[in-house]
Design brief:
heterodimer, A: about 500 residues, alpha/beta, D-Maltodextrin-Binding Protein, domain 2, 2 domains, B: about 300 residues, mainly alpha, MetI-like fold, 13 helices, globular
C-alpha cells in the first residue's frame, strides 16, 4: 500500500515538473541571423526558415548603484545601438543614469520578455520597438502619448511614414531615429556583361516595375547559361509586394487578401520554376555567400547573384560587411550600385516609446526626444561622431566595440538634407563605385507609405511562409495554399472573419 | 539535554525544507497558476481578464492544429523511444555480459553519452546547416552521384520528422544505456552463476533474471522519457521556423503552446489550456504504465 502511495506521489512530482514549464517557459536559445546585426532587420517577416543559431545568455544585468542625486532611467532594447545614444545622453545630462538592458530579439525573446514585464515593477521606462512588432504596442494601451513631442518632429521634418507607424487613432506613441526606405543593389560587372551598361539610370529604366524585373531575370539566365541568378531568395522581394497593397490584411474584422499578395506568389512561382532564384534561405549561409561571389551549387559549380533588395541599413550592416569572403578569396567591394528598384518599400527600423507606467515620465519623454528628434544627436549619429573614444570620455567602462559608424539613414529630413553632400566621398560611396547612397535614399524616403502596417501583419505574414514554400516546391496546389493559409490565420486569430 | 534530543528528531525536516520550498514555489505554484489561467481569456497585452469556463478547451478540441500536435508528439516520441530502448538494452547487455568481456566499456559509454552534453540549440543549428539547400549533405550526395541536383531537405515532411527523431535518439540513447547498465550490474552475479549451473541459455537468463529484476529501472526510463517526450520542444522549435514547418509536420504540443504564448497578443489563457492537456495526457499515461508494470504479489 505504502508503495502505491509512494509511486503516486513521485508521479505527481514528475508531472508537476512537467507542467512547471508552462507557467514560465524557459527562454529559448536565440536564433540569431549570422553576421548581420539584429538591429533593424526583421527575420520575423522575412526568414522562411530559422537562421543559424547563436546561443546567448539573456540574463538581465545588475547595475552599479547610481551616484547620489542621479535619476535612473531604465531602457530596454534588442541591440546595443541605442546604448550609444544613451551614453551620449548621459554626456549631456550628467544627472541621469541610463540603465541599459539588451535582450536579443531573435526567436521572439525580446518581445516575450517585454510582455512578461508589463504591469510589473520590472517594467522599463523606455522600450525600443522593431518594425515587425511596433504596431502591436502602438495599438495597445501600454505606451504613453508622446503628442507633446510632435512640435520637435515638425521642426526636424521627420518623414511622415515614420510618424504614421508610431501613431494609432491619432495618438502618436513612438518615434524613430531612422527612416528605412528600401532599394535594390546590383552588381556592376554583371550588369555590364548582360545589359551592356552599369549606369544606375539605365538599369533603373530596365527594372522599373516587377514585370520588367522578371523579364530581365530571363535575360540574365539566358546570357549566363543559368549560372547567374536574378535574386538569391524569393523572400527578398516579398516586402515589395506587401508594401504596395491597396488594403491592409484586416478590414472590418475580416481577412483581406490583396491582389498584390497573389501577385507575389505568382512572381515567386515564376522565379522558382524558371530558375531565376538561387533558392538560398534569406539570412542563411548561401544568401551571404552570394554577396561575395563564393556561392557554389551542390556539384561545386560557381553561382552568382545579380541583385539584392535591401533597405538603408542593409548597406552598412549586411551588404558591405559580407562583400569580402571570409578566406579573402574574393571581394565584391566597389562592384555594387544602388537604384530605387521596381517598387517603393520600407523595411525594418527601430522605434522608441515610453511605458505608460513609467515613474520618470518627463525624463523618459526627453530621452525619446533626444534619441529620435534631436537634430544634433541625429547628425552625430549619422556622421560617425560617436566613436568609441567619444563614448569612453563620457563613460570609461564602455566596451571597445561600442560605437556608431557613419552611414545610418536618419528620420529627420532637415538633418538628411544637411549631411547628404558629405557622403560623396565616404567609404560607403566607394563601396558603390562612387554612388552616394545617402542621396538615393533621400530621394526615395518621401514616397514610402506605411499606413497599411498593423499589429497583426507579422503573424499573418508568418502564416503565409510555409504554405508558399510548399506551393513553390510543387507539393500543394494554389487552392491548398489558400486553404492552409486561411486555416492557420483563423487559428491564430479566432475572432477574425476568414472567408 | 532533553531539548537537543527533540530537535535531533526534527533534523530531517530541516534537510528537506529547501527542496519543499523550492518545489512549492517553482513546482506546485506554476501548476496551479497554469490550471487557473487555462479557464480565462488572459493575454499578456492586457491587464484584465475574465473567467470563461471551459471555452479554451472547447476551442482546443475543435482545433485541427491541436490534434496535429498531439499526433506529431506521439509519433515523434514513439519513433525515437522504441529504437532508443532497444539499442540501449542491446548495448547494455553486451557491455555487462561476463562471457563477451568487451574491452574499453568506459570509452564506449563516454562516446555514446557525449551527444547528450551538446546544447539542443547547437545541435539543431548543426543539422539545419548540414541539411540546408547549400549545405554539405546536398554537396556530398550530388558529388557522389546519388542525386542529380540539390534537394530542399528541410521543406520535406518525412526528412524533417526523421531528423527530429534521429536527433532525439542520438542525444538520449547514451543516457538510457548508462542507466540500464547500472541496473544490470546491480543484479547479483550469483543468480547468473546458479542459472548457468542449472544449464540455462543466454536468452533464458535474459528473460527470467535480467528483465524482471530490471523492471523498476525500465519503469523509471519509460516514465521519464514519456514526460520528456510529451514536452518535446527545443529541437522541433529550432530545426525549422519555430512553427512546426514544413506543413506542421514537427509541430509538437509544446511548440503549439509556445506559439500561443508568443503570438501578437500573448494569449496565455489558451497556451495554458494546451499545457493542461499535456499534463493530463502525461499523467494518465504514466499512471497506466505504473499500473501495468506494477509489482504483482502472487
Amino acid at each position: 500500500m505504502s508503495r502505491k502511495i509512494y509511486a503516486l506521489l513521485s508521479l505527481v512530482l514528475i508531472a508537476s515538473f512537467a507542467l512547471a514549464a508552462c507557467g514560465a517557459p524557459a527562454a529559448p536559445a536565440n536564433t540569431a541571423a549570422p553576421a548581420a546585426p539584429a538591429a533593424t532587420m526583421a527575420p520575423a517577416v522575412t526568414a522562411t526558415t530559422a537562421p543559424t543559431v547563436a546561443p546567448t545568455a539573456t540574463a538581465i544585468p545588475t547595475f552599479a548603484p547610481p551616484k547620489a542625486g542621479q535619476k535612473i532611467l531604465k531602457v530596454w532594447s534588442f541591440t546595443n545601438e541605442i546604448k550609444t545614444m544613451a551614453i551620449a545622453y548621459e554626456g549631456v545630462h550628467p544627472d541621469v543614469d541610463v540603465q541599459y538592458t539588451m535582450i536579443p530579439m531573435t526567436s521572439g525573446d525580446y518581445q516575450t520578455k517585454i510582455k512578461a514585464s508589463l504591469n510589473t515593477a520590472d517594467a522599463p521606462d523606455v522600450i525600443a520597438l522593431e518594425a515587425s512588432f511596433v504596431k502591436q504596442y502602438v495599438e495597445s494601451d501600454f505606451l504613453a502619448d508622446l503628442g507633446s513631442l510632435l512640435p520637435d518632429a515638425k521642426a526636424a521634418k521627420t518623414y511622415q511614414f515614420v510618424i504614421d507607424v508610431g501613431t494609432n487613432q491619432g495618438v502618436t506613441k513612438a518615434f524613430s531615429y531612422q527612416a528605412t526606405p528600401g532599394a535594390l543593389f546590383y552588381r556592376r560587372s554583371l550588369a555590364k556583361a548582360y545589359f551592356g551598361t552599369d549606369d544606375p539610370v539605365k538599369i533603373q529604366a530596365l527594372l522599373s516595375d516587377m514585370d520588367k524585373y522578371t523579364a530581365a531575370a530571363e535575360v540574365i539566365k539566358q546570357k549566363s547559361g543559368g549560372s547567374t541568378f536574378m535574386v538569391a531568395s524569393n523572400g527578398d522581394f516579398q516586402n515589395l509586394f506587401f508594401a504596395n497593397r491597396a488594403q491592409p490584411w484586416v478590414v472590418n474584422g475580416a481577412l483581406v487578401i490583396d491582389p498584390m499578395v497573389q501577385k507575389y506568389i505568382d512572381t515567386a512561382k515564376t522565379f522558382r520554376d524558371k530558375g531565376y532564384e538561387a533558392q538560398a534561405a534569406q539570412w542563411g549561409e548561401g544568401w551571404f555567400a552570394g554577396m561575395n561571389d563564393t556561392l557554389k551549387d551542390a556539384s561545386g559549380k560557381p553561382e552568382k547573384i545579380f541583385s539584392y533588395f535591401l533597405p538603408t541599413w542593409g548597406l552598412p550592416y549586411v551588404l558591405a560587411p559580407n562583400a569580402k569572403a571570409k578566406d579573402g578569396s574574393s571581394d565584391t567591394t566597389g562592384d555594387w550600385a544602388v537604384i530605387t528598384g521596381p517598387l517603393p518599400y520600407q523595411w525594418g527600423g527601430t522605434w522608441v516609446g515610453v511605458m505608460k507606467g513609467s515613474q520618470q515620465m518627463d525624463l523618459a519623454k526627453d530621452f525619446v526626444r533626444f534619441v529620435a528628434l534631436d537634430q544634433t544627436n541625429l547628425k552625430n549619429w549619422a556622421t560617425g561622431v560617436y566613436t568609441n573614444d567619444y563614448l569612453k570620455k563620457i563613460d570609461p567602462s564602455v566596451p571597445a566595440d561600442q560605437k556608431q559608424a557613419a552611414g545610418d539613414f536618419v528620420s529627420s529630413q532637415v538633418v538628411v538634407d544637411g549631411i547628404t553632400a558629405g557622403f560623396d566621398n565616404s567609404d560607403l560611396s566607394k563601396f558603390l563605385g562612387g554612388q552616394n547612397s545617402y542621396g538615393g535614399f533621400a530621394a526615395a524616403a518621401p514616397s514610402v507609405n506605411a499606413r497599411l502596417m498593423t499589429g497583426s501583419d507579422d503573424q499573418i505574414q508568418r502564416d503565409l511562409a510555409d504554405p508558399v514554400s510548399q506551393y513553390l516546391l510543387g507539393k500543394i496546389t494554389i487552392d491548398d495554399l489558400w486553404k492552409t493559409f486561411k486555416a492557420t490565420v483563423q487559428n491564430d486569430f479566432p475572432d477574425l472573419t476568414v472567408k | 539535554m532533553r531539548i537537543s534530543k527533540i530537535s535531533r528528531n526534527y533534523y530531517g525536516y530541516f534537510f528537506i525544507t529547501p527542496f519543499i520550498l523550492g518545489f512549492l514555489l517553482f513546482g506546485l505554484y506554476p501548476v496551479i497558476n497554469t490550471v487557473t489561467l487555462s479557464f480565462t481569456n488572459a493575454t499578456l497585452m492586457s491587464s484584465k481578464y475574465d473567467f470563461i469556463g471551459i471555452r479554451n478547451f472547447q476551442r482546443l478540441f475543435s482545433d485541427d492544429f491541436f490534434w496535429t500536435a498531439v499526433k506529431n508528439t506521439w509519433l515523434l516520441w514513439i519513433c525515437n523511444f522504441v529504437p532508443q530502448i532497444g539499442i540501449a538494452m542491446l548495448l547494455s547487455f553486451w557491455f555487462t555480459d561476463v562471457r563477451l568481456k568487451i574491452r574499453g566499456v568506459g570509452v564506449w559509454r563516454t562516446l555514446f553519452f557525449l551527444p547528450n552534453l551538446l546544447m539542443p540549440a547547437a545541435v539543431a543549428s548543426l543539422y539545419f546547416s548540414l541539411f540546408s539547400f547549400y549545405g554539405p549533405v546536398n554537396q556530398l550526395l550530388v558529388r557522389m552521384g546519388a542525386m542529380h541536383e540539390a534537394f530542399q531537405f528541410l521543406s520535406n515532411e518525412t526528412v524533417a520528422r526523421s531528423l527530429v527523431v534521429f536527433i532525439q535518439w542520438w542525444t538520449w540513447f547514451g543516457q538510457t544505456t548508462i542507466i540500464i547498465m547500472a541496473g544490470m550490474t546491480a543484479i547479483p552475479v550469483q543468480l547468473y552463476e546458479a542459472a548457468m549451473v542449472d544449464g540455462a541459455s543466454g536468452g533464458q537468463m535474459f528473460a527470467r533474471i535480467t528483465l524482471p529484476l530490471l523492471k523498476p529501472i525500465l519503469v523509471y526510463i519509460f516514465v521519464t522519457s514519456l514526460v520528456g517526450g510529451m514536452q518535446m520542444f527545443d529541437i522541433p522549435f529550432l530545426l525549422t521556423d519555430g512553427r512546426g514547418s514544413p506543413s506542421s509536420s514537427i509541430l509538437t504540443n509544446n511548440v503549439l503552446m509556445y506559439m500561443r504564448f508568443s503570438n501578437a497578443q500573448g494569449t496565455i489563457g489558451t497556451a495554458s489550456a494546451v499545457g493542461v492537456m499535456v499534463f493530463l495526457m502525461t499523467s494518465v499515461c504514466a499512471l497506466a504504465i505504473f499500473y501495468i508494470l506494477r509489482e504483482r504479489n502472487n
